[in-house]
Amino acid sequence: MDFAVALLIGYLSGSLPFGLWLGQCFKGVDVRTVGSRNLGATNVYRELGAPIGVATLLLDIAKGVVPTWWVPLQFGASFPGGPEWCRLAVGLAAVLGHVFTVFAGFKGGKGVATTVGVLLALNPAAFAAFMGVFLVTLFLSHFVSLGSILGSLAFATTLAFVAPGGWRSPTFAFGVLIALVVIIRHHENIGRLMKGTERPFHFRKPKGAAS
Questions:
Q1: Measured between alpha carbons, how far is 77 from 117 in angstroms, rounded to an integer?
Q2: Greatest CA span in the chain, whole angstroms?
Q3: Contact in structure between 87 and 64 (CB atoms under 8 Å)
């Protein structure tokens, strides 16, 4: 029973579609009908503005941090495999909840922000690796998708060295699995990057851009 409850809490936490709710509440806009039609923070930022976009980002990160940190405190001792497996399973459930949210027809975001939250709770070094690579890539290329993909590879690689047990550990296997989820969710972006048609990201609208 504890196993099912722990996974359910992780999944439902990750499923909370903050981008959809904030857009509807403050702008009267269903973000699924504009831009890339994605519930993630990047599309919300582009289409609904910085305040809602940043709020969505922080809340999407939080829904990875909170269950990955809190649930093992409650159910870790009775979870099959112990607290480590509980953290990994709940973190994966949260990411899958974000990607396949029950509150929006099982069509959510791409899992990046929630993955960042899971990493923050799971392994700060892997979190730092992701953020470092993501920010440098975004600064140099202006592509969120490329930063997310390379950042995912960076955190998976980092876990091979810093996770207890190294590349033989379940934590490293988890990192590889989550990186694959993120990369697969970006398959359309990869295609656009290869064609040179991917839309760049700017914190401020470029001069001369349409209003």
A1: 23
A2: 59
A3: no
Across 132-157, average pLDDT: 96
Residue type for position 76: G
What single letter denotes the amino acid at residue 132? Answer: G
| CA distances for 13 relative to 44, 59, 98, 162, 201, angstroms | 19, 10, 8, 27, 28
Burial zone of 77 (CB within 10 Å; 0-12 exposed, 13-18 middle, 19+ buried) = exposed
Q: Which residues contact 25 (CB under 8 A, 6 or more apart)?
A: none
pLDDT recorded at residue 204: 58
CA–CA gap between residue 59 and residue 36 (Å, rounded): 20
* Residue written as token pair 């919300």: 44
The band of 210, judged by pLDDT with boundaries at 50, 70 and 90, is very low
Measured CA to CA, the distance from residue 63 to residue 111 in angstroms comes to 11
Contact 60, 45 (CB under 8 A): no
Taking the model in full, what pTM does it have?
0.89
Within 8 A by CB and 6+ apart from 208, the residues are none
**Residue among 126, 121, 120 at smallest CA distance from 159:** 126
Asked if 114 and 65 touch (Cβ cutoff 8 Å), the reply is: no
- Token pair, residue 97, equals 């909840």
| DSSP structure class, residue 200 | P
Split at pLDDT 50, 70, 90, the class of 208 is very low
Instruction: Please give the angle made by the CA atoms of 130, 135 and 141, to the nearest 5 degrees.
Output: 120
